[in-house]
User: Which sequence fits this backbone?
């Protein structure tokens, strides 16, 4: 796998012993909400943080958008006490926190989906899971090897960065836990993936679905107004069973779209009362879940009523 080098600097926290006064950069005061999150979820978490901040004006919101690996490292190192990632803690990680007298709360707050995007002029917008498995394993490197391709030539797939949840999903769910190979390239961020697809015909991009809103404040559950095409994906290779759908919220909820994963909020904050702990419960509670439902393509973890409307 060809990827870009990613490094982060651990953030050091110092305590003041006097008066409980607030220290710049410290998450240890009751009003600080400092969260490390996978960069994939930046759009919706910005809305969640803004809504929580408006309800709690004393809160100091600080969202750190990094790779999933970095977010979990920061949680383990106690650089932050809350992370938003796409997997729960392993037994080994749970034991680590217990051994260090740190308990962890975790909850699924949403179901996310990966979107495959191609340039606006592309005639190739249908992919199967077998197609994707072939691409990330290096078995498929040209367009004419795909099931429904009308294009010829070298194929390239681009993603955000090494250590991200995107890479882990492609490795574990599509490539049997093996490292990615073939024509697979890191771009550094989800935004860079979208720009690469816009400017380079023949490139397939992989991004979290919430990056594909029509506008920064869009609440429309469609992909109108985008400068890229969102591909349809089927879990079946044979045409008789093929069900090609885009990652619309309804299809994610109905489990028809195959490229999905859970989103977890994890906190190790030991305090019973703090803004950070309140933000954790806000995300999994009614208000936070309503924002996910109404302002994103992601599926909230709370019950949702799906209604089909006939348009005349």
Assistant:
């Amino acid at each position: 796998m060809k990827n870009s080098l990613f490094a982060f600097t651990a953030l050091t926290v110092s305590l003041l012993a006097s008066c409980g006064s607030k220290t710049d950069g410290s998450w240890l005061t009751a009003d600080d909400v400092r969260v490390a999150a996978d960069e994939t979820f930046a759009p919706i978490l910005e809305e969640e943080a803004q809504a929580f901040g408006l309800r709690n004006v004393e809160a100091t919101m600080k969202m750190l958008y990094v790779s999933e690996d970095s977010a979990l490292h920061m949680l383990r190192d106690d650089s932050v006490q809350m992370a938003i990632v796409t997997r729960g803690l392993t037994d080994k990680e749970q034991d680590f926190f217990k051994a260090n007298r740190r308990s962890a709360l975790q909850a699924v707050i949403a179901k996310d989906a990966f979107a495959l995007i191609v340039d606006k002029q592309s005639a190739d917008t249908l992919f199967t899971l077998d197609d994707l498995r072939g691409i990330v394993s290096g078995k498929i490197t040209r367009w004419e090897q795909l099931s429904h391709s009308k294009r010829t030539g070298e194929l390239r797939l681009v993603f955000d960065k090494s250590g991200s949840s995107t890479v882990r999903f492609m490795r574990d769910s599509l490539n049997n836990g093996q490292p990615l190979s073939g024509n697979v390239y890191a771009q550094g961020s989800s935004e860079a993936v979208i720009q690469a697809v816009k400017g380079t015909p023949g490139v397939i991009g992989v991004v979290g679905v919430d990056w594909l809103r029509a506008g920064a404040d869009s609440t429309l559950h469609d992909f109108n107004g985008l400068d890229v095409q969102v591909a349809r994906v089927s879990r079946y290779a044979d045409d008789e069973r093929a069900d090609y759908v885009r990652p619309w919220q309804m299809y994610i909820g109905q489990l028809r779209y195959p490229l999905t994963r859970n989103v977890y909020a994890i906190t190790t904050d030991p305090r019973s009362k703090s803004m950070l702990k309140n933000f954790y419960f806000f995300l999994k509670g009614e208000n936070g879940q309503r924002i996910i439902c109404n302002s994103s393509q992601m599926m909230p973890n709370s019950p949702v009523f799906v209604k089909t409307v006939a348009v005349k």
